Amino acid sequence: MIVLMSLMILFFLIFGLIGYYIMEIGILKDLSIGIIILGLGMFGLLKAAIEMFENHRIDKNKAAN
Q1: How high is the pLDDT of residue 65?
Q2: d(CA 56, CA 10)
Q3: Where are the alpha helices (DSSP H) in 1-65?
């Protein structure tokens, strides 16, 4: 799941950057900026997923008890 989220972030960032530098039309350039922002915003979601994974690990919880 975390690998899939990382690949999605990478895809959004690459797709957005390529679109931003290639497009000449204003609306498509704005859409590319939005895709870049979406990719950057997903970093927070990825961080939360990693923290949830670390807090709910079975081997970590058994060692603490």
Answers
A1: 54
A2: 26
A3: 2-22, 26-55, 58-64
